[in-house]
Design goal:
The protein is of the alpha+beta class. It has 2 domains: 245 residues, Naphthalene 1,2-dioxygenase Alpha Subunit, Chain A, domain 1; 107 residues, 3-layer Sandwich (Rieske Iron-sulfur Protein), CATH 2.102.10. The chain is 30% helix and 28% strand. The chain contains 12 helices and 20 strands. The strands form 4 sheets. Strands 1, 13, 14, 15, 16, 17, 18, 19 and 20 form a 9-stranded mixed beta sheet that branches. Strands 3-4-5-10 form a 4-stranded antiparallel beta sheet, with no helix packed on it. Strand 3 and strand 4 form a beta hairpin. Helix 3 packs across helix 10. It is globular, with a radius of gyration of 30 Å. Bound molecules: FE2/S2 (inorganic) cluster and fe (ii) ion. FE2/S2 (inorganic) cluster binds next to loops. Fe (ii) ion binds next to loops. One of its GO terms (molecular function) is cholesterol 7-desaturase [NAD(P)H] activity.
Length: 446
């Protein structure tokens, strides 16, 4: 019996074999190699199917982004134009950029920061029925809301009772806005219509209501330093109600508000900073590649129109690859007032509209948004345009974020439109336009 027991113990010891770490390592290597070879074998065997699947997925993704999910590109202030500041990680980089901005000279005889005209405060699609949005712009605090009748309205943000911000936690009741603090309500014309437990509302309690216009996919406020009513409105574009919204790109820019539209009248800069391909900056460092990748040649013409608040520009663009004009398009631009631009693209892929709005968030801080619309048949072109246009626009942003204001430039022949543009733009200032110095409140901020 004892012998049998010993034999059993010996067998059990043989069966329980403990692997040392070297054996585990070798086993894993072996397993990985076998799996890798098996995978490689499958890929090789079904390479056509796999390639087809990848292409199909890419096509589905592009179609989805083009037709059902607008392309949204948002660039914060620190994103563009600060590559010259040595790279430091995280918060320190923001501090370095803030320091370089503080050291920047704004310039002399800078025009007022807030011209008179219409300014976009929000996208229509973001202001759904019953929604309330606070917006700070033009040295004001606004509250936007959409009543149950579907009409967008703009009022001052601060409640006349004890100063709560209606845009933060305020709510829509019918077509009124209700304050979040003590539930006072303000109606159509800004007058107070309801105070809890008060039967007779005292007269004269009201909130400032701003003139509001909804067109080109945005909600616009009329700002006028003299307090005048709107001097013009903008009729809707029929195309925008028939075409699809392909997306938007959005930039926060440290610049004077006039710098942005002045770009359209600056013909000479087009063949300088916008000559490189809309796809890549590589030609900047390797100029010989510009002929292979392609580069832009621009011709422009900026003029006033019969309507004093509208200027127009026509642009012919040729995209040259090895001396062939691979992608010509023409662009018709309408500048409506100080902060609203309609750009109409026409090329072999069809038409598209880019709607630009410039909103002065602060005296030297602009929010620029481009919303792109195109017909159904060329939705892919519209979606690509959101990115391509942003790529070209970023080249301007680099300059704007670092430039100073020159009030009397040494104009040369190519700058004649800039002089005409500045003259045209001056109509949007008036006697009470707040000066740059006052708008900045603290002169030390310069
Ligand atoms: S602060 Fe608005 S109701 Fe009191
Ligand atoms: Fe430009």
């Amino acid at each position: 019996m004892a012998d049998t027991h010993e034999i059993q113990i010996e067998n059990a010891q043989c069966q329980i074999h403990k692997w040392n770490s070297e054996e585990v390592f070798l086993f894993l290597i072996n397993l990985t190699c076998r799996l890798g070879l098996a995978l490689f074998d499958i890929i090789f065997k079904y390479s056509n199917v796999i390639l087809l699947c990848i292409v199909l997925l890419a096509v589905v993704y592009v179609l989805y982004k083009s037709y059902w999910s607008p392309v949204i590109l948002i660039r914060e202030l620190t994103h563009t134009g600060f590559d010259h500041i040595p790279y430091v990680k995280g918060r320190d980089r923001v501090l370095h950029i803030a320091r370089s901005q503080r050291n920047r000279q704004v310039g002399e005889r800078v025009p007022p920061p807030y011209p008179n005209g219409w300014f976009a405060l929000a996208e229509s699609r973001d202001l759904t029925v019953g929604k309330v949005i606070p917006v700070d712009a033009l040295g004001q605090n606004f509250c936007l809301y959409r009543g149950e009748d579907g009409v967008a309205r703009i009022v001052d943000a601060y409640c006349p009772h004890l100063g709560a911000n209606l845009g933060v936690e305020g709510s829509v009741k019918g077509n009124c806005i209700e304050c979040p603090f003590h539930h006072w309500r303000f109606g159509e014309n800004g007058a107070c219509t309801y105070i809890p437990d008060v039967k007779n509302i005292p007269k004269g309690i009201s909130i400032k209501k701003w003139d509001c216009m909804e067109v080109d996919g945005a909600v616009w406020v009329w700002y006028d330093a003299e307090g005048r009513s709107p001097m013009w409105t903008v009729p809707p574009l029929p195309e925008l109600s028939q075409w699809g919204y392909r997306g938007r790109n959005e930039f926060l820019i440290s610049a004077h508000t006039r710098d942005i539209p002045e770009n359209a009248a600056d013909a000479a800069h087009l063949n300088c900073i916008h000559q490189l391909s809309f796809m890549t900056n590589i030609g900047k460092h390797l100029p010989f590649l510009n002929n292979i990748i392609g580069h832009h040649i621009w011709e422009t013409d900026w003029t006033k129109t019969d309507e004093s608040h509208i200027a127009q520009m026509s642009i012919d663009q040729n995209y040259m690859v090895l001396k062939c004009n691979a992608f010509p398009f023409d662009l018709r631009v309408k500048q409506i007032g100080p902060a609203h631009v309609r750009l109409h693209f026409n090329c072999i892929f069809g038409e598209a509209y880019v709607i630009q709005s410039v909103t002065p968030v602060g005296p030297m801080l602009q929010k620029v948004v481009h919303r792109i619309y195109s017909p159904t048949y060329n939705a892919i072109f519209g979606a690509i345009l959101v990115l391509a246009e942003a790529y070209q626009f970023e080249r301007d942003v680099v300059v704007w974020n670092n430039k100073t204001h020159v009030s009397s430039p040494p104009y040369v022949k190519a700058d004649k439109s800039i002089r005409a543009f500045r003259d045209w733009f001056s109509q949007f200032y008036s006697e009470k336009s707040v000066s740059m110095r006052d708008a900045m409140q603290n002169p030390l901020d310069w």
